Amino acid sequence: MTAQPALFTPALPPRAEMERAFLESDPTYDGIFLTGVRTTGIFCRPSCRARKPLAANVEYFATVREAIFAGYRPCRRCDPAAPPGTVPGWVKTLLDTVEADPSRRLRDEDLRALGVDPARARRYFLEHYGMTFHAYCRGRRLSGALGQLRSGESLDEVALGTGWESHSGFREAFTRTFGTAPGAARALPDAAIVMATVETPLGPLVAGATDAGLCLLEFTDRRMLEAQMRRLQSLLKQPLVPGNHPYLAQAREELARYFDRTLTAFTLPLVFRGTPFEERVWRELCRIPYGRTISYAELASRVGSPGAQRAVGRANGMNRIAIVIPCHRVVNSDGKLGGYGGGLWRKHWLLGLESGGSAAR
Q1: Torsions phi, psi for 190 (to 5 deg)
Q2: Are residues 102 and 180 in the same domain?
Q3: What is the reported pLDDT for 141?
Q4: Which of 77, 121, 213, 279 is deepest in the core (most CB within 10 A)?
Q5: What does the pLDDT look like over 305-360, one tens digit per residue?
Q6: Domain assignment present for 301
Q7: Is 29 a member of any domain?
Q8: 75 catalytically annotated
Q9: What is the average pLDDT score of the chain?
């Protein structure tokens, strides 16, 4: 994981806005400001769930550096010194273990041997990947099995080589996931939405692709992620399974160039499904040039619905392909950022990246 990006130091929001976000533990303000509690000497993220102090005992900072130099120490509960969106070390260990041998069946005792509580892994993967850790592992094995079958390997080799103890168990799991027997896999077009994690300077993204193109790119800490995954599966009528796909490799390569400022237009084919209005909004978002912003009112006008700022705002929020479909380029008419599903700090940072902002801390 790379260090927390710092193109510039953001201006702090109004105090009343910060007080509201802190009292409500609003995670969308993580990365925008930090709170120092005078009575404890501790500083926290806005999203921290610790008991809230009196407003008079709180001061606000734009950076970790400011909070530390003011004499505060980081909260152990919310770990504000870690970059927002950082994958915990124990999660990275699990993901690396799975990728080292995708066919291996990891059981609860294996997790404990790695120093990970199985219940904690279950909760984390449900929240950030829309499935339990064991379901993630099973999906990863099935994704590999599908690829092997489609490349011509025999059913016997695939079933026993991907961690199943019997042909019947493999056939049952495969049919339940893909809706057809393993023997018919070679004829399956777009059998699944293949997903993987893409590391970025702003934290990890969950990416999903079918044979038609990229259909999912969401920050793993987004609160709506699980609902977005369920809707995507319903719209495309395909299961989500972890694995590898050429479009996922292309997404990693193009995103790396985007963050290096050597790419200003993505060439990935996209698959987006929604209401006719949502799709009109998403197509129009793709027409906003790199380094430019428009207002919600202008976007509403461009899609033929002048005055429908709230509707286009909701459609922006339902965008499942972050950055590539650049909903971050839409701001309020008064120049304020507005909302962003990945967190306002990320929207602020992305606009700074595209405008050529220079490091300030």
Answers
A1: 45, 60
A2: yes
A3: 80
A4: 121
A5: 888 889 999 999 899 999 999 999 999 887 777 778 888 888 888 988 898 753 32
A6: yes
A7: yes
A8: no
A9: 83
Strand partners, 51: none
In this prediction the pTM is 0.66
On whether both 158 and 117 belong to a single domain, the answer is yes
Q: Where are the alpha helices (DSSP H) in the chain?
A: 15-23, 64-69, 89-100, 108-113, 118-129, 133-150, 155-161, 167-178, 225-236, 246-259, 276-285, 296-302, 309-317, 344-355
CATH number at residue 351: 1.10.10.10
pLDDT band at 3 (very low <50, low <70, confident <90, very high): very low
CA 283/CA 277 separation, integer angstroms: 10
Is residue 53 assigned to a domain?
Answer: yes
Boundaries of domain holding 283: 276-355
Is-catalytic flag, 44? yes
Q: Identify whether residues 241 and 298 lie together within a single domain.
A: no
Determine the pLDDT at residue 339: 79
**Secondary structure letter of residue 45 according to DSSP:** -
pLDDT range class, residue 271, cuts 50, 70, 90: very high
Query: What CATH number is attached to the domain comprising 117?
Result: 1.10.10.60
Task: Decide: helix, strand or coil at residue 232.
Answer: helix
Strands laid side by side in the 42-44 sheet: 58-61, 34-37, 42-44, 73-74
How does pLDDT run across 239-256, given as a tens digit for each residue?
888 888 899 999 999 999
Query: What is the three-class DSSP state of 56?
Result: helix
Q: Has residue 80 been placed in a domain?
A: no
Q: Active site residue: 75, 78, 137, 327, which one?
A: 327
Domain count, the chain: 4
Structure tokens at 293: 């912003």
Residue 258 has what pLDDT?
95
Name the catalytic one among 44, 78, 137, 215.
Answer: 44
Give the residue among 354, 361, 355 at the shortest CA–CA distance from 259.
354
pLDDT tens column, 134-188: 888 888 887 777 777 776 777 777 776 666 766 777 777 777 776 666 766 665 6
